Amino acid sequence: MNLREARQAIDALPADPDASRLFGQAYETADGSTVIPVATRGVKPLGIFVVKDGEARFVPAVDAGRIAMMGILVGLVSATLAGVAMVRRPPWPDLHGEISRSF
Questions:
Q1: Per-residue pLDDT tens for 72-93?
Q2: What's the Cα-to-Cα distance from 40 to each of 21, 29, 55, 57, rounded to whole Å?
Q3: What number of other Cβ atoms are within 10 A of residue 3's Cβ?
Q4: In this structure, are residues 9 and 29 in contact, taking their beta carbons and an 8 Å threshold?
Q5: For the chain, how big is the Rg over CA atoms in Å?
Q6: What confidence tens digit (pLDDT) does each residue in 26-77 have?
Q7: What letter would DSSP give residue 101?
Q8: Burial (CB count within 10 angstroms: exposed 0-12, middle 13-18, buried 19+), residue 47
Q9: Which pLDDT score, from 0 to 100, does residue 76 have?
Q10: Is 20 helix (H, G, I), strand (E, B) or coil?
Q11: Is the dihedral of CA 46, 50, 51, 56 positive or negative?
């Protein structure tokens, strides 16, 4: 089971009505893997445990949209700060001085 299949399995799981449980009901997939959802008090999903061929591994639930929005926000803030810094003191030479001619 790769990361995409694990993410689809997380999205396909129904909400757990019992808000006090940490581990959800185990599900059997078509390829023989056992998937166990893990959540914090039934509110926020943490990920799933995938058991296949006697080996268990944890696949975290990552919100890719949230990570992308944070990257965009960091880029916008840095561009704004760079623009403000250039308006206050531009990096190019000051051209308002006197021009002297020596012949």
A1: 999 999 999 988 887 877 666 6
A2: 8, 23, 24, 18
A3: 10
A4: yes
A5: 27
A6: 888 899 889 988 888 757 788 889 988 888 898 888 888 889 999 999 999 9
A7: -
A8: middle
A9: 97
A10: coil
A11: negative
62 closest CA partner among 98, 23, 10, 2: 10
pTM as predicted: 0.46
Give the number of other CB atoms < 10 A from CB of residue 51. Answer: 16
CB 10 within 8 A of CB 1: no
Q: Is residue 49 a contact partner of residue 58, using CB atoms and an 8 Å limit?
A: yes
| pLDDT of residue 18 exceeding 60 | no
